[in-house]
Amino acid sequence: MIFFWAFVIGGLICVIGQIMFDVFKLSPAHTLTTLVVAGAILDGLGLYEPLIDFAGAGATVPITSFGNSLVHGAMAEAEKHGIIGVITGMFEVTSSGISAAIIFGVIGALIFKAKG
Amino acid sequence: MNRKKAIITVSLFFLLFGCGTDSNTDQNKQDTPITGSNKLIDQQPSADAKEMINKHEEISAIKAVNNSETIVVAVKVNHSERFTLKSLRKKMEKELKDSFPKLDVEFSTDLKIFLELEKLEEEIQADHFTEDKLDKGLKEIIKLSKEQT
Amino acid sequence: MTDKKKKKLPPDALKYQAFQQQREVKRPLLKNCLKAFLVGGFICLIGQLISTFYIYYFNFTEQTAGNPTTATLIFLTMLLTGFGVYDRIGQFAGAGSAVPVTGFGNAVISAAIEHKTEGFILGVGGNIFKIAGPVIVYGVFSAFIVALIKTIILEWGGF
Fold first, then answer.
1. ipTM above 0.90, yes or no
2. Counting one residue from A and one from C, how many pairs have CB atoms under 8 Å apart?
3. Over the stretch C112-138, which tens digit does the pLDDT of each residue have?
4. Which residue from B minimizes the CA distance to A95?
């Protein structure tokens, strides 16, 4: 079941992105930024975690989950160390995406040829 | 090109719906309580816990293992109820803690914890399973359930 | 096709064709959304498969399987980007390939590959976050605001 809902919810989040492309004429950078901020706000409202419980990768693979992870890290640290945790804890849960992108970016630049 | 796309889409949906038939339907909701030949490790609290949690309709499968100090329970929740997973978890954890005031209660809805408990339950049935191994096994599972990253 | 037609038609018809193209409604929204849905959903499905694989065969829980899944997806993105396949997927799927984390990875990796002729320090290092930069900057900033507000509310409202 989770495979079905991962597909559907992931697809729907991408459709929202496509609407931002076509109807609101936003660039990819603007769209992705908006979606990340939306993910952060939804997690603040406590709405993103249930979506992850229900749709699994359908909610963790889209870029919105990055905003969600950042808020999580910040809140977890704030619970332990007070308000300063909001700044110190942010990247604790979610380094994977950025680290992997940088590492594979450099490896890619080493291995692959630039196309015209 | 359009026909090709249609065929790919349709077969993709069949694949998804095919995978949709849960392996849960194969498992008995009523797990048989553990009555291993090993009488040193009393699993009665686990059997009680299973009976108690089974009453909830949202639960499709349950595994529980205990030693003298701790009880670890893992459940699989019906997919349509997973939206409210957080509140279900809180409710059932409270129920277990109230019912077993003398034991440390660890409750999880995580699939991995469920799989590990399943393995542990099977190992308990074995003749040469000692109390030490049970303690170690439970400790490892609890540690796994606490990991955040 | 229109070029061939232009050579055979009289000038009035050519004028009308130009006029018609001007008034034509572009951007098939529904078709684009469908393509985005299918490709985006498919990428998330692959993510779920990878995640489940890590849970069953490795020592990851549902909580901790997210990180290796993301890393694996970005590794696959590196291969697709390096061989030029991801760009073709992007042309077809639009947001379906840009919104998942693989799109983020593609933005970073394709920028790195593209700018390597300018040198590794300034070229690759300086340009790698052209598109990904705003995502990280405003992701962090918005998470900061949200977490700040939430923490303040909890501290006032809680005790």
1. yes
2. 268
3. 998 988 888 888 888 888 888 999 999
4. B149
> Which residues fall within 8 angstroms of residue C59, CB to CB, at 6 or more apart?
B112, B144
Please indicate if any CB of chain C lies within 8 Å of the CB of B135.
Answer: no
Q: Is there a contact between B83 and A53 if contact means CB atoms under 8 Å apart?
A: yes
Q: How far apart are CA A19 and CA A16, in angstroms?
A: 5
Task: Express each pLDDT in A19-74 by its tens digit.
Answer: 999 999 999 999 999 999 999 999 999 999 999 999 999 999 999 999 999 998 99
Q: Is B111 close to C45, i.e. CB distance below 8 A? A: no
Segment B96-99 long-range contacts (CB within 8 Å, at least 24 positions apart):
B96/B49, B96/B52, B96/B53, B96/B71, B99/B48, B99/B49, B99/B52
Spell out the domains of chain B, with CATH numbers in brackets: 23-146 (3.30.300)
Residues of A with CB below 8 A from B20's CB? 1, 3-4
Give the A-side interface with B, CB within 8 Å.
1-5, 7, 49-50, 53-54, 76, 92-93
